[in-house]
From TrEMBL:
High-level lineage: Bacteria, Bacillati, Bacillota, Clostridia, Lachnospirales
Organism: Parablautia muri
Keywords annotated in UniProt: Phosphoprotein
Stretches assigned to the Response regulatory domain: 3-96
Any Pfam family the entry gives: Response_reg
Protein name in the entry: Stage 0 sporulation protein A homolog
Domain of life according to the entry: Bacteria
Protein role: May play the central regulatory role in sporulation. It may be an element of the effector pathway responsible for the activation of sporulation genes in response to nutritional stress. Spo0A may act in concert with spo0H (a sigma factor) to control the expression of some genes that are critical to the sporulation process.
InterPro entries per record: Bact_response_regulator, CheY-like_superfamily, Sig_transdc_resp-reg_receiver
In-chain residues carrying the UniProt-annotated modification 4-aspartylphosphate: 59
GO biological process: phosphorelay signal transduction system
Keyword Phosphoprotein recorded: yes
Gene3D superfamilies: 3.40.50.2300
Amino acid sequence: MFHIAVCDDEEYFRLRVRNLIEEYMKNRGFACQTDLFPSGKEMLEVAESIQQYDVIFLDISMEEMDGIETARRIRQVSSNVYIVFVTAYITYALRL
């Protein structure tokens, strides 16, 4: 089973990304558990559990702590998890 986290401060996008992931995995015959986090801070509060995730989807533009800083802190805990940045802003997409 794949363990996946989605971190986005906007509920609509958190749910949308989760639904897309779960549909994709189901169509390919893979089981997954998807956890949702409304902020990088809340995700990092479960830092000891970060290592359980195979993939983390991070919004780049979030209040308080952006996705880039969240990713840096995740890397301090785990170098194995895949991090996928998600953004609706074309300027971020082009920079990364």
